[in-house]
Amino acid sequence: MNYQTYYKNITLSFSDQGKGTAIILLHGFLENSNMWNALVPELSKKNRAICIDLLGHGKTDSLSYVHTMEDMADAVHHVVHELKLRKVVLAGHSMGGYVALAFAELYPEMVKGLVLINSTSKEDSKERKSNRERAILAVKQNYKAAISMSIANLFSDENRMKLTSEIEWAKKEALKTSLQGIIAAQEGMKARKDREILLHTTLFPKTLILGKKDPVLNYEDNKTQIENTNVELVTFDDGHMSHFENKDELENVLINFLKRV
């Protein structure tokens, strides 16, 4: 079921399906809650799957010219509060993972478990920040071309050939994101702080899912964030878009995680 709520004078959109342990699914940059469509039917058989359109994405309006990860986490909290949920599992893909970490820092008592999918607790490097600046300029100059290239570049090389229909679908969904939403998210991601400490100090169960051929997040670099922690590492053989490239494996990981928490 799709719903809308009002938050700080904007419309906030989400879906809610099933009963049981509540899992909040948070999409990545240039995505929306539809990215979870293939996973929700299975997840909601024994759990409650809630998919939120983050600020400036999908059917959720933009709030300002910069959407910090804390802003997005507060919007997620608003939905959790509206649904009267006491504790939730958070699963975030890429930017959704940054939002999940911000939520875990702001509302630790509400977190039952955390799954980071193709994401990182580390802040942007200098290089990554300048890449975001370039991406903002590119999208201002040629919105459609910039988005099209961004989406294709998230898949591993071989999957760009194999998953053409999935890539086209992801591009169409990405084009639903407004220019303001894109810029505000890039600015928010660029300014986000390092939250690696949360992987070491929080007591709830945590899983990190990484793709070996992720073109965005270097696999070897990102493994280092969970050294000397009790975070479970799950490795897939493909790129940054595990919900397309490794759908069945991701589904199994999430279902097994929900059984454990």
From TrEMBL:
The keyword Transmembrane helix does not apply. It comes from the Bacteria. Keywords: Hydrolase. Residues 22-246 form the AB hydrolase-1 domain. PANTHER family: MONOACYLGLYCEROL LIPASE. This is Alpha/beta fold hydrolase. One of its GO terms (molecular function) is hydrolase activity.
